[in-house]
Amino acid sequence: MTLAYVPQTLLSVRDLSICFDTRYGPLRAVDGITFDLAPGEILGMVGESGAGKSLTGAAITGLLERPGRIDRGEIHFEGQRIDTLGKDEMRRLRGRKIGAIFQDPLTSLNPLMTVGQQLIQTIRTHLPLNRDAARTRAIDLLMEVGIPAPDARVDQYPHEFSGGMRQRVVIALALCANPALVIADEPTTALDVSIQSQILELLRKMCRDHGAAVILVTHDMGVIAETADRVAVMYSGRIVEIGSVEKVFKDPRHPYTAGLMQSIPRIGSNAHRLAQIEGAMPRLTALPDGCAFNLRCPRAMDICYRQKPKSQALGDGQVACHLFQEELA
Amino acid sequence: MSMESYPQSRLSIFLESDLYYRFRTSRITVSAAIVTALILLAALLAPWIAPHTPFDVTTLSLWDSELPPVWVEGGDPRFVLGTDNQGRDVLSAILYGSRISLFVGFVSVAFAMVIGIVIGLISGYFGGAIDAFFMRIADVMLSFPTILVALLVSGIARGALPREMHDSAALVVLVFAITITTWVQYARTVRSSTMVERSREYVYAAQLVGRQPFAILFSHILPNVMGPVLVIATINLAMAILIEATLSFLGVGMPPTNPSLGTLIRVGNEYLFSGVWWVVIFPSLTLVVLVLAVNLLGDWLRDALNPKLR
Amino acid sequence: MNAIQQIEKPLLSVESLGKTFDLTAPWLNRIIERAQTRHLRAVDGLNIEIPRGKTFSLVGESGCGKSTVAKLVVGLHRPTAGTIRFDGKDLTDLKAANRGMYRRRIQMIFQDPYASLNPRWRVRDIIAEPLRSFGVISNRSEERAQVGRLLELVGLSAQDGEKFPHEFSGGQRQRISIARAISSKPDFLVCDEPTSALDVSVQSQILNLMRDLQDELGLTYLFISHDLAVVDFMSDYVGVMYLGRLVEAGPAEQIFSVPEHPYTKLLMDTVPDITMNRRDRVAVTGEVPNPIDPPTGCSFNPRCPLATDTCRATSPATTQRGGGRVVACHAVTGMHGNNSPIKPEPAQGIA
């Protein structure tokens, strides 16, 4: 497959903020996140529910729903600014250049259309192929994602597939137009553990083969460890740490990341008690001044209650924590 | 938000809720509520605030018949909205008529609600043969239009009862007819909500501590299925008032000796073309405004209680 | 394992427990459509013993029957086969009326923190319901005091009793659930995936709380989960289930360090490796089959790397393997070519 020239950075997000307009005033669900994605790279976005990771994915694909809106910041994709694009242009971009995989395979597929029809429809929307060529491509894709007897199953309906099989179809659907970027939002959360590893392996392989970069949104650190190259840890709408998966998991800098890694139970560890992070992530309506993690942080200092930490480069990653800002200062 | 004062009463929780917020920020809803409240109040206080007693024959005088409203030439300030062909004051007639209309509306909704909720809860919780039994009855009830049932019941009543009781039985007949045709809506919606709630874990937890099925139904499940019921009840109130008006208009509802708004409209309709417009217009306007206001309140409830619209 | 033999009876013991659901279409439909009778064998031939004060976990994926076992033990379902014995007493056919005494002693914690608390009730009423229903406390002020104590025991404050469930986060709701479950001072708690719906940073809090309560109150747990690492932390004994059958069981340390059954090995392989040692993995194939239509013979045979004709023909019996472990597998017990069955023994939680 010949590749056209692609710029060094596929996706560039700068200071993205997402607000919700409620009767209590605007609530900031995502507060100034910045990151880059290289072509073919797998970036994991990990964090608790409510941390803002799904919203970020939605903003990138242009599927952010009211009352949420992008408040500030820019999103650049393949050198072009996309957060200001009109609905139609965004729709063309989605599917052709950006694919999406969601959590629930049951609702991602139209129950009234056969799997083949959905694939063919998407293929022909974005690629100049006639019906027969599109059908051949659909069958090839089904084979690639590991569906047995694809020429027979291409005419079956979604309910005739099991959960794991359906998610494979969804992956095929996301990749059928050869997008450069795939956003996968909790793709394996609804699946059994033994299927989970198969699906993640498939995702890795397909994206490698098709040259697609992936943003993998999940709350499961294990999924990130198995699949991603780099990871961004989100907390209360901000990225607190970002770097290669190895570095971040083996040597976490931010106290939240460190706390998370320590609190995950491990087989054979024989611990009598798990390390735990006290408290819970603050609600959007009750965000504290300063760093959102300050009440739970074992290493909080005075400044943590007054000022939000800025994201600083550290090694080949970034950390947003006053502990490291002091060092650099 | 509301983290400071404890314990928080249910009233203060309501006042801070989305439901109430949507109410007070919607001018239409507030206006509708005010209008409904005014009509309700006027109807309740009719015996004290009505300037005349139009159905006490001894107070009537044929000299006062067919007087136009006070602002039209020939009007009399004693009869603000004019009089009908027997000298009855239209305003007072409307006040007393609204009483009847509202009474029939509220009582039939209340009865239908109670019957519907109980059947819905039992059907949804126990399922099986009991559910099948009640739902078949419900299906049969739904195939009868209320008007037809009312005509049927009214006919039976007239045949069975002695002549003198026809008029006084009219109220009971009306309430009965409307109740037995509208309980099904409540039953169905409560049944499906119950079926959803029944398999929730808090019900299992109650079963595990040994609570009896009826205790679980009424203390656990009922509070959680009431939401849609209130919406239906409000909209049904408007519908019940209209049905009653229709029946009275057709002559099988309240008699002219104790008229509701519908009866007044019928009576006024008979000599509309002789130029006496005020006898039919004012009761009609009242009816329309009342039904509209109640429907608007129903809209507010429905939108505010719909979790998907939040 | 314990060098000392436990002579005490197990608190809960389950023998040949089975539950089959009848999914046949209603009579009329069956006649018209000529549909077959359909049955779902959710649980089949389960033998387990749980000693007092210990934690026994059941692991498995969807369709394995572990949630059904939880409901059977607690009395929400009636078994269609086998017996359940609690503190020596046979509970299986006990009529609802006579269950009262045992109800107080066996309680349950549920998976979904949002559905397990009635959203219209205040927390204090939710926690007090068992107290009132079992008649444990008669006067109001004592009840209030007890509810306050329970809230503090689970890490909340006494004033939280006045609030409604929606004011709490998932982890806090689970604490309220726990407070409710222990309010009647039960001996035995069935925990159905109590942390599966919680975020990682909260999971450890709840698991620690459950361990602490077990030590303080001498509780015995039947812990249901699909997460092996959580199970390893919580349990003394583990049972692995697949399509309604127990395929392997024994002391947790043993099972996790040296798994014998191919399915157990498969599960261990799929646990993501956070330490990133990236060891080589056996390719995992296939999916859990539809429980209504299981494979013949050993239900794992379509996915098993060691499957032979024997495996496809006959279901393996449960055999003792020493050290308290039991396994149901032809390959492991070397029964590949031999058709003589071995009498099943219960999975002992006792050395």
Can you describe this structure in just a few lines?
The complex is a heterotrimer of chains A (329), B (310) and C (351). Chain B has 310 residues and is mainly alpha-helical.
List keywords for this structure.
heterotrimer, A: about 325 residues, alpha/beta, 8-stranded mixed sheet, 4-stranded antiparallel sheet, 12 strands, globular, disordered N terminus, C: about 350 residues, Rossmann fold
Can you walk me through this structure?
Chain A has helices at residues 53-61, 87-96, 105-108, 115-126, 131-144, 150-153, 163-175, 193-210, 221-227, 245-250, 255-263, 322-328, and strands at 11-22, 25-37, 42-46, 68-77, 80-81, 98-101, 181-185, 213-218, 230-235, 238-244, 312-314, 317-319. By secondary structure, chain A is α/β, with parallel strands linked by helices. In chain A, strand 1 (11-22) and strand 2 (25-37) form a beta hairpin. The model of chain A is unreliable at 1-6 (pLDDT under 50). In chain B, 71% of the residues lie in helices and 0% in strands. Chain B has 12 helices and no strands. Chain B has helices spanning 10-16, 18-24, 27-44, 46-49, 90-126, 128-142, 146-160, 166-198, 201-208, 213-250, 261-270, 278-305. Chain B is globular and about 75 Å long. With 351 residues, chain C is an alpha/beta fold. Chain C has one domain (3-87, 187-348): P-loop containing nucleotide triphosphate hydrolases (Rossmann fold), CATH 3.40.50.300. In chain C, 30% of the residues lie in helices and 20% in strands. In chain C, the strands form 2 sheets. An 8-stranded mixed beta sheet of chain C has the order 6-7-8-3-9-10-12-11, with helices on both faces. A 4-stranded antiparallel beta sheet of chain C has the order 2-1-4-5, covered by helices on one side. In chain C, helix 4 (123-133) runs parallel beside helix 6 (170-182) and helix 6 runs parallel beside helix 7. The longest helix of chain C has 18 residues, at 200-217.
